[in-house]
Amino acid sequence: MGDAGYPTWDWKKTEKALYLPGSSPVRIAVPEMPFFVVAGEGSPDRPEFGQEIGALYALSYTIRMWAKKRPAPPGFVAYAVFPLEGVWDVTGAAKAEGKAGVPDRTAFAYELMIRQPPFVTDAFAAEAVSAAAEKIPPGIRARVRFERRTEGDCVQMLHLGPYADEPASFGRMARWCGEQGLSRTSRTHREIYLSNPGAVAPEKMRTVLRFGVRPKG
Q1: Is the model's pTM score more than 0.70?
Q2: 94: which of 42, 45, 71, 99 fits an S-S bond (Cβ 3.0–4.6 Å)?
């Protein structure tokens, strides 16, 4: 049992297929899951990017620690906070200018998100936003959404190394998809960040790379 006698749930132990894949491409069905999400555009070097990440963690830890300060909602479990995720694309302006294939960092369009446990309802998510309001800049708080998403049929693998080396892993994934008769459903891709870039050497960084697929034809 976990905090105050609540049952525990640790994604690192119970959901390895989703979050701890091997270093070779694999096909996986990703079910519906709830997230706090914030969308943005521009370089990850912007201060606002760090504030957006901070907002998601503020909300996630507010919910994680809820039962220590307040009555717990129905179905509450003591759980490990989920890792940060990002869905990456390029801006509409970059696509219009024909830069979608080789964007620079200022042309990124992204959605940052952190998954939430199943007991978090729309109403409870709104309570959490109110409870964490002082920790989140108002402009970012207004852009945070709580929603459920289903990725469905995907291919993923673990990328070991710096973010700059991800194209090589995506190349492996693309070749594997070709061998399996699969094609991507869109140009966007998802990254799940298992390492803290401020605490881990670049060559030891672990990132799950994932994109949607469908059978060719």
Answers
A1: yes
A2: 99
